Amino acid sequence: MSKNFEAVVLVALMAITLLALSPQPIHSTRPRVPAPPTAQIAALVKGSGCSLPSAQCLASINWSGYAVTNATNSVTFVGASWTVPAIAGAFGNTCPDTVKTWLDASFWVGIDGFDNGYVEQTGTSSDCVYGQVDYYAWYEFFPAVSYSLPSADVIHPGDTMYAYVNYTASSSLFGIWLQDKTPRHAWYFSLYGANAGAPRDSAEWITEGAAGCITSDCSVFNFLALTDFTSVTFTGATATVVCSACVTPGTYTFPVSSAAWGASLNWIEVTNVFYPPPGPFLRAIPTAAKNSAFTVRWISSGP
């Protein structure tokens, strides 16, 4: 997995002072994995809220949510809001020292990544890092590494976030916007950057257990356990696509819940599909999208 650090060209920065941008876990790993044709997985998919045709009900090793897929050079915008979830459940809103591991739960919107080696994305994470609580905001133009924002210092559970990624054809640049709309913690971050070769063939609203680098160049990595966040709800989830797979082909801005997406909309659960028996293990699952919103529920941290 190559790292093209020069792919990101920053031409605008957030309104608050940037003190440092430090690398964080990589958040994109070609997640499209059709659910294995077993009775167990089929029952989980159809019994847990996937109302789409079976070909659009997918399992992933690290993504849960929705993705709209389409032709190359077709996606120009994706956006949504969510509330930063607290670390919850068995961890009791803390990360006890007995948890000697790194757990990650990341919430983001992005363009690309569904079935290619690129993603332009931004979001927040609720992590347990070897016993320490860590809430932070970040962006990533994969295959370059992700970067946390100094505004992570003011990310708190319960903060309302709004994020979008767009593409401007005249400049061939992606724009990223991430905003904390909570009055006592208000800030925003914006930038424009290039990601050479990005196909712009999908838009996503995702909850993820990211991958952590084992080697300094991140050529070796592993998928992190999924932090218990109980649930997160994406609202105002929309995308703008030149949609060839829509019920009526054309250029549209639709909410994730629109039936007009047709076969281009995909529902994704996190299942450790590559684990041997007694796996696979269901880790997170989305509800049916309704009124431009859906919820992702945490099930387990995984083996």
Main sheet attributes: strand count, strand direction, barrel closure:
20 strands, mixed
The CATH architecture can be named as Sandwich
Q: Tell me the overall shape.
A: globular
Amino- and carboxy-terminal Cα gap:
25 Å
Strand percentage lies at 35-45%
Number of individual domains: 1
Question: By CATH's scheme, which homologous superfamily applies?
Answer: Peptidase G1
Q: Briefly, what CATH class?
A: Mainly Beta
Say how many strands there are: 22
Rg calculated over all Cα atoms:
18 Å
Order of helices and strands: EEHEEEEEEEEEEEEEEEEEEEE
- What's the overall average pLDDT, rounded? 79
In CATH, the topology is named Jelly Rolls
Q: Total helix count?
A: 1
Q: Are there runs of 5+ residues with pLDDT below 50, and where?
A: 1-23, 29-47
Structural class: mainly beta
How would you describe this protein?
The protein has 303 residues and is mainly β. It is built from one helix and 22 strands. It has a 20-stranded mixed beta sheet that branches. A two-stranded antiparallel sheet has the order 15-16. The chain is globular, with a radius of gyration of 18 Å. The N terminus is likely disordered.
